[in-house]
Amino acid sequence: MKDEDLKPFSIRWLTRTAILLAITLAFQMLGFPQMVTGPAVNAMLLISGTYVGIIGAVIIGMLTPLIAFVRGILAPPLAPMIPFIMVGNAVLIIAYVISRAKLGKGYAGSAVGLIIGAIIKFLILSSAVRFIVSVPPPVAKAMQIPQLYTALLGGVIAFIVEKILDAAIKQNRA
């Protein structure tokens, strides 16, 4: 595959982005608890960053909370959090992709990007419920430390899935 095949807004890039968005939304629609859905969605955001780049993954990260709200997956009390979830998703993706570009796709680049992105996402969401928006206490609690855990676990899942996919692609080319 040529690099130009995955330039933003090429047919291949649009197709991959749409498929990754659909898979991410499917995880959301399964109705599992936050500690299952959160890592799955975060993993998909990071996998998207790897396979369609920052622009495609950020688009997915911005659309998922909005679509989840419109579809009734995201509870109405979370509506004021949608912009903060969008920004948190974007930061997670950007930190992960840039760290992997600078430090390599191995453990170091993945771990640094994941940790930085997860911490900043956690700080954005927890600060929003503490200082900016008024949400019920259970919602505020869900937007704090669980967000750090789900982002970190999602990153571990993404790293494992990416290694499996890379091995499969490599074997397919041989």
UniProtKB/TrEMBL annotation:
<feature type="transmembrane region" description="Helical">
    <location>
        <begin position="13"/>
        <end position="32"/>
    </location>
</feature>
<feature type="transmembrane region" description="Helical">
    <location>
        <begin position="111"/>
        <end position="133"/>
    </location>
</feature>
<protein>
    <recommendedName>
        <fullName>ECF transporter S component</fullName>
    </recommendedName>
</protein>
<keyword id="KW-1133">Transmembrane helix</keyword>
<feature type="transmembrane region" description="Helical">
    <location>
        <begin position="145"/>
        <end position="165"/>
    </location>
</feature>
<keyword id="KW-0812">Transmembrane</keyword>
<dbReference type="InterPro" id="IPR024529">
    <property type="entry name" value="ECF_trnsprt_substrate-spec"/>
</dbReference>
<dbReference type="Pfam" id="PF12822">
    <property type="entry name" value="ECF_trnsprt"/>
</dbReference>
<feature type="transmembrane region" description="Helical">
    <location>
        <begin position="81"/>
        <end position="99"/>
    </location>
</feature>
<keyword id="KW-0472">Membrane</keyword>
<feature type="transmembrane region" description="Helical">
    <location>
        <begin position="44"/>
        <end position="69"/>
    </location>
</feature>
